[in-house]
């Protein structure tokens, strides 16, 4: 029987995870809409997706997966590719904008983690709280960015692959009605845990290595306290 402290720890973790999940989703979808808008497409703006309100971008299943599996997705931004001067490059740029924004947010989170770890008081409760928040933010943003590069609809990687290899579009159309359940089953079964976990860890450690060099931190200073 699990001790009550276990449930308290789980609840504490969710309280930390919830705000960083909202930030990760907001940044991801805002980036999609912003890049499409810059390419001349007014659709995201008309749909109200050029907003920093994360509630406009939430997908229920994707958000729950992000909280419990540290990998998930948001509600796709609707775009109109007719406005792009170059349709193929436009779709690829818009698709990659979301994951790229997550990697930027992860790097900034690690940078703040390093600054706080270097100059903050180890005995301060508030410092401890923010260290954990920044750590979770890095993990969640990397998880969201990497997961969305998988070439399965509705993830961003599927849009990129469809432009680079048009023959896959017919297959995507056949599985479209089942796409959400396919992703949920892949996550719940653990089929993606090892390859994505390896990719996430590699990116996290690489970004943390850059931060340690920039801040001249102790080279033996451990990575963030939250494992992927």
Name the features.
228 residues; mainly alpha; globular
Report on the architecture of this protein:
By secondary structure, the chain is an all-alpha fold. It contains nine helices and no strands. It has helices at residues 4-38, 43-46, 60-69, 87-119, 125-147, 156-164, 169-175, 179-189, 193-214. Mean pLDDT is 87; it is low at 224-228.
Summary of the model, kept short:
With 228 residues, the chain is an all-alpha fold.
Order of helices and strands: HHHHHHHHH
Q: Beta fraction of the residues?
A: under 5%
Overall average residue pLDDT: 87
Low-confidence stretches: 224-228
Radius of gyration: 19 Å
Count the helices. How many?
9
Helix fraction?
A: 55-70%
Shape: globular
In the residues, how many domains can be counted? 1
Biggest β-sheet description: none
How many strand elements?
0
User: How far is the N terminus from the C terminus?
Assistant: 26 Å
- How would you classify the helix and strand content by structural class? mainly alpha
Subcellular location: Cell membrane
Transmembrane segments: 14-35, 94-117, 129-150
Protein name: Site-2 protease family protein
Family: Belongs to the peptidase M50B family.
């Amino acid at each position: 029987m699990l001790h009550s402290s276990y449930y308290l720890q789980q609840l504490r973790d969710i309280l930390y995870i919830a705000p960083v999940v909202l930030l990760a989703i907001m940044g991801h979808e805002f980036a999609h809409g912003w890049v499409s808008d810059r390419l001349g497409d007014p659709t995201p703006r008309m749909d109200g997706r050029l907003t920093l309100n994360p509630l406009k971008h939430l997908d229920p299943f994707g958000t729950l997966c992000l909280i419990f599996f540290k990998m998930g997705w948001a509600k796709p931004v609707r775009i109109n590719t007719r406005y792009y001067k170059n349709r193929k490059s436009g779709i690829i740029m818009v698709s990659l904008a979301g994951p790229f924004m997550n990697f930027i947010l992860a790097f900034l989170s690690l940078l703040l983690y390093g600054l706080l770890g270097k100059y903050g008081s180890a005995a301060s409760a508030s410092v401890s709280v923010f260290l954990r928040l920044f750590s979770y933010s890095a993990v969640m943003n990397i998880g969201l960015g990497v997961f969305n590069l998988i070439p399965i609809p509705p993830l961003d990687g599927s849009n990129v692959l469809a432009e680079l290899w048009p023959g896959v579009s017919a297959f995507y159309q056949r599985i479209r009605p089942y796409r959400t359940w396919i992703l949920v089953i892949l996550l719940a079964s653990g089929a993606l845990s090892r390859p994505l976990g390896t990719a996430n860890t590699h990116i996290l450690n690489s970004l943390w290595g850059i931060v340690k060099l920039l801040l001249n931190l102790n080279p033996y200073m451990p990575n963030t306290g939250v494992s992927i």
